[in-house]
């Protein structure tokens, strides 16, 4: 296998595997937020604030995977 092909394969795997966890986490997080608001509509503001904070933390993991993939493509 050529080095360029290995580099691109590694970048694809890094992004693909690095996006599985955040994808599942965002789905579970969204489900929990919708369930919480449907059970207690008065707490919508607090739930939404906590949802956005958790969303940002979860999305950061996918961004780190993207950065690693870009580094593998252009630097390695």
TrEMBL record:
Membrane topology per record: Multi-pass membrane protein
Source taxon at top rank: Bacteria
TM regions (residue ranges): 12-31, 51-75
GO cellular component: plasma membrane; proton-transporting ATP synthase complex; proton-transporting two-sector ATPase complex, proton-transporting domain
InterPro entries associated with the record: ATP_synth_csu_bac/chlpt, ATP_synth_F0_csu, ATP_synth_F0_csu_DDCD_BS, ATP_synth_F0_csu_sf, ATPase_proteolipid_c-like_dom, F/V-ATP_Csub_sf
Residues of the site described as Reversibly protonated during proton transport: 59
MF term (GO), any: lipid binding
Compartments where located: Cell membrane
Alphabetically ordered keywords of this record: ATP synthesis, Cell membrane, CF(0), Hydrogen ion transport, Ion transport, Lipid-binding, Membrane, Transmembrane, Transmembrane helix, Transport
Domain V-ATPase proteolipid subunit C-like: 9-72
Keyword set includes Nuclease: no
Role this protein plays: Key component of the F(0) channel; it plays a direct role in translocation across the membrane. A homomeric c-ring of between 10-14 subunits forms the central stalk rotor element with the F(1) delta and epsilon subunits. F(1)F(0) ATP synthase produces ATP from ADP in the presence of a proton or sodium gradient. F-type ATPases consist of two structural domains, F(1) containing the extramembraneous catalytic core and F(0) containing the membrane proton channel, linked together by a central stalk and a peripheral stalk. During catalysis, ATP synthesis in the catalytic domain of F(1) is coupled via a rotary mechanism of the central stalk subunits to proton translocation.
Family the UniProt entry places it in: Belongs to the ATPase C chain family.
NCBIfam families linked: ATP_synt_c
Name by which UniProt lists this protein: ATP synthase subunit c
Native source organism of the sequence: Dehalogenimonas sp. 4OHTPN
Gene from which the chain derives: atpE
């Amino acid at each position: 296998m050529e080095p360029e092909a290995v580099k691109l394969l590694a970048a694809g795997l890094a992004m693909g595997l690095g996006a599985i966890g955040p994808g599942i986490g965002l789905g579970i997080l969204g489900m929990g937020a919708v369930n919480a608001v449907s059970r207690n509509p008065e707490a919508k503001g607090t739930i939404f604030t906590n949802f956005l904070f958790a969303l940002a933390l979860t999305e950061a993991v996918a961004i780190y995977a993207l950065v690693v993939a870009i580094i593998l493509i252009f630097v390695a």
